[in-house]
Automatic annotation (TrEMBL):
Native organism: Trichoplax adhaerens (Trichoplax reptans)
InterPro entries: ARM-type_fold, DNA_alkylation
Any Pfam family hit: DNA_alkylation
Name of protein: DNA alkylation repair protein
PANTHER family: ARMADILLO-TYPE FOLD (PTHR34070), DNA ALKYLATION REPAIR PROTEIN (PTHR34070:SF1)
Domain of life: Eukaryota
Amino acid sequence: MPVKRLNNKRADAKVKKMKGNGNTLTNNVRKILKALESAYKPHTNAEKAKAMKKYMRGQFEYYGINSPDRRKIDTDVRKTMPDLSLTEHHQLLNELWELPQREYQHFGAELARDSVKILTGDSDQDLRESVTVIENMIIKKSWWDCVDLLAPRVIGEFNRIQPEVMGPILDKWITDDNIWLKRTAILHQLFYKENTNQEKLFRYSLACAKEKEFFIRKAIGWALRNQFRVNPSAVKKFVKENDNKLSYLTKKEALKHA
């Protein structure tokens, strides 16, 4: 299965645009970045880093810190973090995504997950600016390890809070050329359970049904499988009615627990 590289020109343009707003990094953001570097470096393990890079198909560099150990380090660093403004959150997330080691992106994705209320802001414009930051995190250094956290736990929560703002954005993403934005749109309701907008789920599934990309076919099946737990008859009916449109992988995943 080929590795899907991001659209570098698009992602780089977004970073340039965000960095070109005249905002220099605050002392708080600089201190957090320095604290993370100081905490990660002593735990560098070249052998593990090599294995991790290989597992991720050579796409990312690593310090070589196992996830449980990395999370312990992250917890210690976050205990010392000052309260950050919305702008500082944006700055920190943008900077974390520019650093080479993947551990920084994991820190950023988990921070975004835990900062949804702050990132939502006090206005529609605040939320749109946060979405721009998260979108950059999705389309730059794209892979399932971060996207599959950002999709339901950040974008999905944004949609719960402000569906009027997020609806048009997600409708745009489901038709985007970038497979990771498509995957995010498909998976954003993953943990909605009884609150899932089933019509939207089925519509998004059909919108991408012709995609040959593994990560899209798998995502559709995953989203349908979670909805099966809530409304099995509806999912069975949808799959049956669209048998000639949905891929074998999608149908297999969707009806895994049938």
